[in-house]
Amino acid sequence: MNNNFIKYLYGIADNSLILGQRLGELTGHAPSLEVDIALTNISLDLFGQVRSYFQYAAQLSEDDITEDDLAFLRTEREYLNVLLVEQPNTDFAYTIARQFLFDHFHMLLMTEMQKSKDETLVAIAKKSIKEVSYHKRFSSDWIKRLGDGTEESKQRIQKAVNDLWRFTDELFHTTEADEAMIKEGIAVDVKMLKDVYYKNVNEVLETATLEVPELKYFQKGGKEGIHSEHMGFLLNDMQYMQRTYPGMKW
Amino acid sequence: MTEEKVHINEVLEPILRQVPDPEIPVLSILDLGVVREAILEGNKATIKITPTYSGCPAMDVIGDDIVSALAKEGYEAKVNLILAPAWSTNWITERGRKALEDYGIAAPLEESADKKALLGEEKIVKCPQCKSTNTHLVSQFGSTACKALFKCDNCEEPFDYFKCLI
Questions:
Q1: Which GO terms describe its biological process (chain A) (predicted)?
Q2: For residue range B73-111, what is the model confidence (pLDDT) as tens digits?
């Protein structure tokens, strides 16, 4: 059970870690100072949450490992984040669309995780949900602002939503480890969140005068460690310091 | 307004009161409400602190500051980080709120008012400089994780607002 539990923790934590890394790439590069600060603040919140999960995973693990080992020294196949969060920043529309599609899921996940049988997960969820609600508000507001903005902004945010839509279904997939932990009453059964997720997301898109994409085929793989071509580059950037100077401290 | 009784040893209290928040130096960590317990046994102190935000980079500094402040007085301190119960802006003391206002940071409103202010529905955040409520939200995220950025339309000064977190 311990092994499954640790894998389950990786799955949740890696989403925040990889998205946090993507947002961190924008430090000093966002379209305006306020947005720059907002995106990096969100990144910081996500990293903070990751630390709580990884400290817990390190504690549960039989190996002598630390939170830093988990963040920086795993190989690509060992990261269990969804494909959505590793997609590149591309432009502001993509950055906001990716954030929006993730935040709505994250909010539902944290809401349900408060009912877990595991006390630490409940504590992390109760802490995180306060932060995630700010993220969701920020990204949803931008969806509306861009969608109901100019011709140009509308066309660009619509394209970003359309392109990223194919990664949304994976949010509701479960792995073997997830299923085992759901049975224990520890994990959230994300399959149950799907309907309300699309209902919430579609509502915002409609307010933003955007079209809800119609798509039959979705992409998956991240949760099993099979990532898109972008992941290797991201990890290279994120890990090179610890790989080059093992054990290096800030 | 503290939801549950926080036990702070009375010998340690004045020492901890001298430890400031590294990002808001006018605010003592006791008034910020991050110290959840302080126990003294012999010369060994055990302090429990909780983060304001998960990623708050000040937590490590606060931990180090507590250890060195207590070491100066001859106490050996151990600082533990706890997550539950989650920190709330309700734990900022009256004295803390006053210190924030004097420093130029608007103190957190109640939850429902905070939402209206951050959504731009109502002008209720008071400018800490001229006390006008003729202010507007510039960004929901400010210079640190716990703050939003506002601007006063009366005196034209930008200012930080300490976001409500309940």
A1: phenylacetate catabolic process
A2: 999 999 999 988 889 999 999 999 999 999 999 999 887
d(CA A143, CA A154): 9
Structural domains in chain B, CATH included, are 7-91 (3.30.300.130), 105-162 (no CATH)
Q: Phi/psi of residue A177, each to 5°? A: -60, -45
Residue among B56, B138, B143 whose CB faces A48 most closely: B56
**Of A37, A123, A138, Cβ closest to residue B84:** A123
Location of structure tokens 């915002």: A204
CA distance B131 to chain A (A): 24
ipTM confidence: 0.81
Q: Is the pLDDT of residue A47 over 90?
A: yes
Q: Tokens for A11?
A: 């799955």
CA A116 to chain centre: 20
Q: pTM for the complete prediction?
A: 0.91
pLDDT, tens digit (0-9, with 9 covering 90-100), for A88-102: 999 999 999 999 999
Please name each of the domains of chain A with its CATH number: 2-244 (1.20.1260.10)
Per DSSP bridges, beta strands B147-152 and B135-139 are antiparallel
